[in-house]
Amino acid sequence: MSWITLLISSLMTMLPASLLAAPQTYALQADRSEVGFVYSLSGGQNRGSMPVQAADISIDFDQFSNSRADVTVDVTRARAGVIFATEALKADSVLNAVAHPTIRFQSTAIRANDPRNLSDGGQIDGMLTIRGVTRPVTLNVAVFRQQGTAEDDLSQLSFRISGAVRRSEFGATGYADLVDDVINLDIAARVALAQ
Predict the structure, then answer these.
(1) pLDDT at position 115, please?
(2) Is-contact 80 60, C-beta < 8 A?
(3) Backbone CA torsion sign across 98, 99, 102, 103
């Protein structure tokens, strides 16, 4: 059992019942959050990112399945690591940033691997909308107390989310001869308890 597992498990038992009794609303720390993605361009691995524009996040520490997330990403500010790849990413044949300036994910179910220990991770099922096409996806998630906060403080949390999507399923088929279909997601999101 890792030290993070022990820490989160201890936190869950020390929190007052009133805090654990209902979903808590968290506000996105946008400047500390991004959707990272890894793609293969001509056989080489490249990393890009998109800023999170908005997020509506509610966490029920008593029953994690009552938690929800609705996240919007800004496609117009996407970066693909190199200038020509960034322009290609926003082109009509890929993300079509002019017509579809955002990507949206809305959770439909959230499951913790161990309901008493969120740092052990879980899965988020949801509907992902890219280029106006909406499809179901399942992502892996872990929740951590932010570094530097007190042991009993869950007012600031960090999420690490990973998964993969096939861009062709959303009609983002441009440059298929250069860029692989599978895009791997590496998302870092930081939130603070809403006032």
Answers:
(1) 66
(2) no
(3) negative
98 DSSP 8-state letter = T
In this predicted model, what pLDDT tens digit does every residue of 161-177 receive, in sequence order? 999 999 999 999 999 99
Q: Which residue has the tokens 């997330």?
A: 69
Q: Which residue has the tokens 């600031």?
A: 156
Instruction: Find where tokens 């993969």 sit.
Output: 164
Place of tokens 């022990």: 6
Exposure string of 137-167, with b = 16+ CB inside 10 Å and e = fewer, is bebebbbbbbeeeeeeebbbbbbebebebeb
The residues, any chain, with a CB within 8 Å of residue 43's CB and separated by 6 or more, are none
> What would the two tokens of residue 101 be?
């300036």
> pTM, whole model, 2 decimals?
0.84
What is d(CA 128, CA 44) in angstroms, rounded to the nearest whole number? Answer: 26
